[in-house]
Amino acid sequence: MSLFTIFKISSQGMQSQRERLEAASANLANANTTRTSSGKPYQRRDVVFSTQEVSDKWNENAAESGLLLDDQASVGVRSEIQLADENQFVMQYQPGHPDADANGYVKLPDVDPLEETVNMMSAARSFEANATVFNTAKELARISLNLGDG
Question: Which of 24, 107, 120, 142 has the most CB atoms lying inside 10 A of its own CB?
Fold first, then answer.
């Protein structure tokens, strides 16, 4: 694996964790939003991660020469934001609320503040880990370039 592949993978990881942090913060900010532009309660956002093959010349040459097995190719991460089901909400009794139904119940988004806080903390730690990998690879590249200076 080349250093450039490491840069690509760690960058994808940082981008995915940033999207996860954005989704968690949007969920927290809209935890009590009962009406959006569509007239329905806010829909919680979830981030789903999947693998994404990272191709570079080193991987292609190694695979052609038989140094890599099929399952050893470099893989990064891809993230996708999915909206919760529009029928997934919490009913809360608030008879004076302008969005209350005839029985006094309001549809609130199904957002758990504790879960979103844990997601934010986990995303921040994962982002830091990917940044550390990126900086370590950068330092290795710098040292490699200075080897000939002796």
Answer: 24
